[in-house]
Design goal:
The protein has 105 residues and is an all-alpha fold. The protein has one domain. Helix content is 59%, strand content 0%.
């Protein structure tokens, strides 16, 4: 039986934004319910190396998903980029919402 956990793409983007805002891995794992801080390190590595397409792939598909993006049609590439940007925007909105709740305490 597999113990792998699939985190939604939005959680991965939120973890990246929180890390960039100076939060510790411990704070991020506690706030977002992530089981292992190593997961955040992996996501940050993907982010820094431009592999954010991996955020939207299923568990266990890391090595086949996204290969050959140069072979994707322009429309497919734009759809993928649009999905990534929509996810980033959703995370930014959520982060602003969380920040506002902190300032009211």
């Amino acid at each position: 039986m597999s113990t792998r956990v699939h985190y939604p793409e939005q959680i991965k983007w939120e973890a990246i934004k929180m890390k960039q805002a100076g939060k510790t891995n411990k704070e991020i794992t506690e706030q977002l319910g992530i089981k292992n801080k190593t997961q955040i390190k992996t996501w940050m590595r993907w982010y820094k190396t431009g592999q954010t397409y991996r955020f939207s792939q299923q568990v266990g598909k890391q090595y086949s998903y996204g290969k050959g993006t140069e072979e994707m049609s322009e429309l497919e590439q734009l759809k993928l980029k649009n999905k990534q940007l929509e996810a980033q925007l959703a995370i930014l909105k959520k982060y602003q919402e969380i920040e506002r709740s902190w300032s009211h305490k």
